[in-house]
Amino acid sequence: MITRSTVGVTAPEGFSASGVGCRIRDGKPDLALLVSDRPAAAAAVYTTNVIQAAPLVRNRAALERTGGSATAVLINSGVANACTGEQGDRAADWMAEETARLLDLPADEVLVASTGVIGVQLPLDRLAVGLPLAVEAMALDGGPLAAQAILTTDTRIKEAVGRVVTSDGAYTVGGMAKGSGMIHPDMATTLGFITTDAAVAPDQLRAMLQRATDLSFNRITVDGDTSTNDMIIAMANGASGVQIGVIDEEFERTLTQVLVHLAREVARDGEGATRLIAVRVTGALTEDDALAVARTISSSPLVKTAVYGSDANWGRVVAAAGRAGVAVQGERMRLRFGDLEVMSPGYHSDFSEDEALELLSQPEVEIWLDLGLGTAEAETWTCDLSHGYIDINAGYRT
Prior knowledge:
Blueprint: E1 2-3, E2 15-20, E3 31-46, H1 54-66, E4 69-79, H2 85-103, E5 110-117, H3 124-136, H4 143-149, E6 158-166, E7 169-178, E8 191-196, H5 202-214, E9 231-236, H6 249-268, E10 276-284, H7 287-298, H8 301-308, H9 314-322, E11 334-337, E12 340-343, H10 353-360, E13 364-370, E14 376-383, H11 387-394
Parallel strand pairs: 4-5, 8-9, 10-13
Antiparallel strand pairs: 1-6, 2-3, 3-4, 3-9, 6-7, 7-8, 10-14, 11-12, 11-13
Helix pairs in contact: 1-2, 2-3, 5-6, 7-9
């Protein structure tokens, strides 16, 4: 079972974390440190945006040099260290090297991440003051503090924990994430950090993380923008003594559930959002078709604004499905908002507007579209689009 956690990434054995302020974001925590008590197998997935921030470039190289090993991750918020040229590359190296010096580690055992405003150089003088504080503050229950320090426009921390008991013992998967805007499939302004005390080989961890990401963070959208800094890092330190086999469905299912929980929380906390929207498409010929339709509906500004206004404008959903690049047949579709059917095959529509208003006013709204063509299905998550989104992004730098 996946739960909200009071310890997040420090729920698994052998991990400690901290979150402190170093004045990158005045008056707010802005520097997080996550450390394993031993070298851990490590893997990462990255944004598909071809313009990538310095931390991503550095981490790729470091993980290649170590063969998939890491012991610590340093994360700052407020400045993205993206589009910063050679100076930004040197800053990412400095973050890793200085952390390694303070923790007595090889520099390649430290991964780094940044989030915030693009095109601004990292204030290394402030990081130099904050980093020793982060090292000193590390604690076994420091997960929530780290989860707070990685936020930007988020309104709440995002954590999840899954625990599994096996015949060989128990292991835990913990996670934290941030993200509120610039959210779209194939990664967005999201940073995610996953820890487990199970023992997993690096190549196996990488493959599982990619599949779990495809079923979670690559199925959410807030505004259709994909960032330069998106990255999810997973670390498996083996402290529980439980060895994950080459094929281990229970571990991958737990990993996926942790990522799905975090991804839903990111969508729920979309900038200016008042509702989480789950879009479920069934009756497709293939899963790819179902996913294409679900993604198109999820990213439709007209659908998202209709939900914000609690308007059962079902034609917007059908129209979005029709431009998804899939050979759908509108007259075979069946559409529901929650449990309320608003359109049946043949474009028949007869429903209670009052009941629809009630359903669309809930904190969580489900849009279910059956294509009537096959048995494949897919689900995505998004949020409504409100006036608040414009207010936040019109003044993001100020």
